[in-house]
Predict the structure.
Amino acid sequence: MSQIAEFLTITFIAIVFQNAVMTRGLGSSREVLLFSSNRKILWFGGLLTCYLFFSGLLSWPFYRFLRGSAIGSPRGTLYFYSITTLLCCCAVFAAMFYVTRAFLPRIHYYFRKMRVLLLLNCAVLGSILVVFRSGETILKSYNFIPASSVGYTTLVQTLGFCIGSGIGYTAALILVNEGRRRLSLSDVPKAFKGLPATLLYVGIFSLAIYGLTGHSLPT
């Protein structure tokens, strides 16, 4: 039960307080922010969440090995985290592409259309590296549950954060799409129509979440 609670808690943290778009600014490309329908967003978010989950699952054993070994300096170990995680993400992407093509043709149709946005989306690599490097710090900072006493980010924490990041990313895109739709119906100055108004909306929303987490702007 404690592991289930830990999983759900860190998933909630990743959705709300460590949102990939609103808090970290990950995956905020023009093409993604300007998705025209919630249907596309849900397909993209579902594929991204699966991609994140399996990438985190494959990357964690390498992270655990590097964390427990004495390969080079601590800074050098961080470089190994990045390289191994990137390779794992590429392997998972290739596996998902061929599996969906062979067994899930309908999903593969959307996967093929969105493959560039998925493969090059920094929310995947960024979210995994965030939980590897700062997982224990994140748990301590919000005081929901005690940080793991084993000295590293556990598999449960990693998978919970990956799923939460995918769900939070999808929710953020839906909110951005709704805000963009309402802005298009408003009398917005010509210079701010389109992407500029969307970025202002995202910035104001991000500040709201920044305040919700207990942070304050420097004075």
Notes: The mean pLDDT is 82. DSSP finds nine helices and no strands in the chain. The CA atoms of residues 136 and 147 lie 5 Å apart.
